[in-house]
Amino acid sequence: MESMVFPYPILTYMTFIPLIGVIAILLLKRESVGAIRWTAAAFSFAPFVLSIYLVWYYFSAVGTGMLFNIHNEAQGFIFDYPEPLSWFPQVKIHYIMGADGLSVPMLFLTGLLSFISIIASFGIKDRVKEYFAWFLLLEVGMMGTFSALDFFLFYIFWEIMLVPMYFLIGIWGGPRREYAAIKFFLYTLFGSVFMLVAILALYFTVGSLDMLELIRQNSNYAHIFQLWVFAAFFIAFAIKVPVWPFHTWLPDAHVEAPTAVSVILAGILLKMGTYGMLRVCFPMFPQAAIAYAIPIALLGLIGIIYGALVSMAQTDLKKLVAYSSVSHMGYCLLGMAAVTTMGISGCLFQMFSHGVITGALFLLVGMIYDRAHTREIEAFGGLASKLPVYSGLFYLFAMASLGLPALSGFVSEFLVFVGAYNSALVSRWITLLAVLGVVLTAAYILRMIQKVFLGQLNTRWDTLTDINGREIFTLAPLGILTILIGVYPEALNVFLRGTVNNLVKMIIP
Amino acid sequence: MKDLILILPQIFLFLWAIAALAWDFVKITSGRRGMAYFSLLGLILSGIMTIFIPGGEGFSKTYLSDDYGRLFNLVFLASAFLTILAATDFAELRFKHKGEFYGLVLMATTGMMFLSGANELLTLYVSLELATIPLYVMAAYMKRDLKSTEAGLKYLIIGGASSGILLFGMSLLYGLTGTTYLSQARGWVIGADMSTGLILAIVMLIAGFGFKLAAAPFHMWAPDVYEGAPTPVTAYLSVASKAAGLVAFVRIFFGPLAIVKEDWVTILEIIAVLAMIVGNLVALLQTNIKRMLAYSSIAQIGYVFVALTAVNGYSIVGMMIFLMAYLFANIGAFMVAIGFSNMTGSDSIDDYAGLIRRNPMVAIMMTIFMLSLVGIPPTAGFLGKYWLFAAAVKEQLYWLVIIAVLMSVVSLFYYANIVRKMFFHRQDDESKIYYGPALGLGIFISGIAVILICLAPSIFYDWASKAARVFFPQF
Question: With contacts defined as CB-CB under 8 Å, which chain B residues touch A163?
Fold first, then answer.
């Protein structure tokens, strides 16, 4: 009975290297803008490199078959330290960092998008020092949330993210930034306090805050207890996703946030919601997961349809992408509610590919906004002739978002639909109605492309320049990932398979 | 002799207070800052004695020095320490009579330190008066200032009346049990369970302490007094005098009255809910930072009452850790406000606009204090609330905890408002705001403490759980 350990505490390094970066930036002079930018880039590049190593190490561990060996106590997990480090021993709070198939892709995505966002933020001119300090602090919270396996630690990282996000939206955002910032903060805190109560309730029931220990004991919880605690956790995570009807903070935050922050928000923060559901709600309270399958699937369905319909009505490019997130995250909910291997895999595929695609779309919208200083869809037209490279890249990601085969969006939607259709828990009608979402998505994406890129070029935009090398550099890795996963889904699935199988077995024995 | 050693920290601090008062008559030096540093030294020495002198009972069992009382003594000493650091520059600027102030702070602290060990009703009452009478004087310290005089008078009248109510409750308790000793009263209380007299005694005691703690619905005096009193006094009132109320309250209610807790937990639940709702909702509307912190301190007491209704070991642990967090965060916030008004003469929240440009370090520290008061990790306030709510969750008081966490979310709005002003807004005057060495040191200590309590929780939890074992030996 033993578990696997990294050769060195890589997750701890990934989490706390950005914190060193924060301190380094605080020590720099406010005027030395160049030094601050490159320091930030360096301290986000290091965790990115480590995340590539993490991916490689996990991949080789999957290959050896050790991870899902019956002698392995923690199936699918690799830890930083062989034993939980004692942090608050009197009340059994430990420092436990570990990664499994759920978190490895998310950690990689965090490393990648943080680095890209910091490069994309080089255009920030106002209060540069503060900006990058908050940004790196945000990365600490994100990395920590995906690696922490002790509830106390998890909660601390979860909450640490709120503060930098509040400042990033509130200082560098658009005209209604203050409103958007406090709305984001209040909504998320509202959710997390329920999580806190649920954590305390679990602690007094089991006497431990070790997530894996709590999962191991999942057969001991009373049915009614499961229903309540599941609901408390679900509210906290659903606000983050955001699930309809908790989604109203999202358009405000996205529209007001600066580009790079939107990328992180859509790419990572939304995924924390679904990550939390799959990490906590489903494995810890399997009876509740089954009992709530229909309501969760319905919430997913409402999200898909409602998000798509609202997207159709948008006149602002960024708002359109923001609402499309509500729609796309709905697929995740539908997939996980199904509790089939395909459904949950689809959910995880969607988490990853939505992070990549929407991250790229927000970058693209930011690029055109930097040049044209407007995001009104009606104001554009015929950009394809003026900005061919930009348009080509935009088409790529828009098509991926739409679910065109051979791009990553298609794989995840396909898996979700097949998984949900074959599920014993979710009514087939829900899945069939959800397929309508694909049509609606096609409608709003194609309408947007038509109005922005096709037709006659507005003479107002004669002076626009095509995208530069730095911008292509930020988009290239995202484009490669989109195509790679679309053409060869196994590249991602190899990380997920074991963990997903485990999860499904845990819920439906 | 053994008895005297037991109260050596108090005797020492009392003599030091007399010396501080005498200093003003003798005028050994010309500057008054020397007196402040002299008083700080006295507090440190008394603190060292508090830590190292072993506990025990003395004075024919009227006085008890245990882990619970001694931890509270450290809280009192720490808040007096920070208050004096906060007051030095303020005193030079605003006070006509600078001398007696420090002596009064030490005197009040001495009273509180006796109170923490009072194991008998009369001792408890006398200590309480020793603690509060200097506070009346301190509240009215700027006697040419109308608001300060008003604050002093209001505080005196309300304080006197509440002491009367408290005394009436104590006399009823004495009448029922025939003893003023808390340790002996326990047995008698069982016999008096649910009797009208006991209920009346409990109600009177709760009302009396409710006034001292400024818990709603007994809070009306607090905002005016907090606004009018000199700001360092407000800081001291909002932390030390509340802690003093709690130390005695818990001594009585978790001691002899714990056995009849069914008679009083409902009243505490009502007070907790009222305090949280009134404190938080009214704080939303405030534009003056002192009034805002006054209402928020009403709400903070509400959170403590959430834990106290649970009556278990975690109640004590939660209260202790929460008080430590609250001590540093609240006095820290007041210190920022004091330095700000020393320079600008303003207590208006709107004037905090653009503080990040005028003094970035202080703006960051203020943000840490505000986050701690909301209870967001990694700050001490989070840990405090964590254990407070843990106590209630342990007894499955979920409805109370839900109200408490929702009210915490509400509180984010007004605490974040200050952060919003400091970071998001600008104003025309962007001249630097300097904080003197004493204030700077105080703010720095508080900021470090707020982070440290959360990141190294074991030490503080150990102290708190020792205090809890006084009432719950098996905890």
Answer: 371, 376
| pLDDT bracket for residue B375 (50, 70, 90) | very high
Angle at A327 between CA A326 and CA A332, to 5 degrees: 90
Domain span including residue B274: 260-475
Q: Which residue has the tokens 């990328």?
A: A263
Structure tokens at B448: 């470090």
Closest listed residue to residue A205, CA positions, set A186, A184, A222: A222
Distance CA B16, CA B105 (A): 11
Q: For residues A355 and A425, is the Cβ–Cβ distance under 8 A?
A: no
What percentage of chain A has pLDDT greater than the value 90? 58
Token digits for B109? 């602290």
So what's the ipTM on this one?
0.92
User: Minimal Cα–Cα distance from A9 to chain B, Å?
Assistant: 20
Could you report the per-residue pLDDT of B424-473, keeping only the tens digit for each? 988 888 888 888 889 999 999 999 999 999 888 888 899 999 999 999 98
In A, which residues are within 8 Å of B432 by CB distance? Answer: none
**Cα–Cα distance measured from residue B213 to residue B299, given in angstroms and rounded to the nearest whole number:** 11
Find all residues with CB under 8 Å of A216, minimum gap 6, and list them.
none
Is the CB of residue B154 less than 8 Å from the CB of residue B143?
A: no
* Angstroms from A249 CA to nearest CA on chain B: 15
CB pairs under 8 A between A and B: 77
First to last CA, chain B: 33
Q: Which residues of B touch A91 (CB under 8 A)?
A: 461
Between CA B26 and CA B226 the distance in angstroms is 33
B359 shares contact with chain A (CB less than 8 Å): no
In a domain, B326, yes or no: yes
pLDDT in tens, B144-202: 888 899 999 999 999 999 999 999 999 998 888 888 888 887 777 776 666 888 889 99
- Between CA A493 and CA A80 the distance in angstroms is 23
Number of domains comprising chain B: 1
Going from the C-alpha of B442 to that of each of A290, B80, B271, B338, B365, the distances in angstroms are 55, 11, 33, 11, 11
Residue A423 in this model has a pLDDT that exceeds 90: no
d(CA B37, CA A279): 55
Q: How far apart are CA B223 and CA B154, in angstroms?
A: 11
The answer to whether B405 contacts A162, with C-beta atoms less than 8 Å apart, is no
Query: pTM (2 decimals)?
Result: 0.94
Dig out the tokens for A264 from the structure: 């992180």
